[in-house]
Amino acid sequence: MLDLSDCSERAHIAAALVHESTHGWLLKRGLAYKGDAIRRHERIALGEELRFLKRTVRSLMLTESERSIRLRELESWARESLKSEWYSPEGQRDFKWRGVKKLVKSLFR
């Protein structure tokens, strides 16, 4: 269950909605969220979330240097997120929304 009760950043909430709606889109098209398909589901959903956040960063009034730094931060976050396998039972114990919120706050400062 998606818990956004402690999310104050609009971009974070929107990105989470993009991520979760992607799961719904995949389920509707017949890709079950179980077994080996879970990793695929999460990779696709994170990719859509990342695409949304990149487009949002590109729309900000930033210098090219600032924009480049923030886009690299997003790429790094996405790579680390996939490595962490937050969606697995083991990953759920270690996953902290604080890291996501901190990243989003830094991107839209």
Q: How would you spell out the order of helices and strands?
A: HHHHH
The biggest beta sheet reads: none
Low-pLDDT regions: 1-8
Helix percent reads over 70%
Q: How many DSSP helices?
A: 5
**How would you describe the shape?**
elongated
**Class computed from helices, strands and strand pairing:** mainly alpha
Chain-averaged pLDDT:
81
Number of domains: 1
Estimated share of beta-strand residues: under 5%
- Rg value: 14 Å
Could you tell me how far the N terminus lies from the C terminus, measured between alpha carbons in angstroms? 28 Å
Quaternary state of the chains: single chain
> What is the total tally of β strands?
0
Descriptive keywords:
mainly alpha; 72% helix; disordered N terminus; 109 residues
What does this structure look like?
The chain is elongated, with a radius of gyration of 14 Å. α1 (10-28) packs antiparallel against α2 and α3 packs antiparallel against α5 (97-107). The chain has one domain (10-107). The chain has 109 residues and is an all-alpha fold. The protein is 72% helix and 0% strand. The model is unreliable at 1-8 (pLDDT under 50). The protein contains five helices and no strands.
